Amino acid sequence: MKLQETHSGRPAEKPRNGAESKEGAEMKDAWVEKMIHEYATYLNEGNSGVVYRLNIAEIPQEMRAALTADEGKETPPDQAIKILKVYSAGEGKREFEMQQRAYDIASQKRDDPRFAQVPKPYLFKDIAISPETSDFLSARANGFRSTGRAEVLVMDYIPGADVATNLYREVIRRHPKTRHLAHAADELPFAQLEQEAALALDFRRPGGKGQSEGERINERLRLEFENKDKLLRFLEKKTDLQVDPAVPEQLANTIRLFHENGLTVRDFHPRNAMVVGRFAAQKGGPETAAAPQTFIIDFANAVEIETGLDDRAVVDRYIKTGDTIEGVNFVDPRTVINDLKKLAVAPAERQRAEDADLQEKLEQRRAKLDKSLASRPSRQVDAYEIKLKATLSSGRATADQMFVLLSTNPLGSDQRERLDNLLVNLMRITDAAPELKPAAAEALARLLDKTVPAEKVRLTAYLESLRRP
Question: What range does the domain containing 405 cover?
Answer without folding.
Answer: 348-467
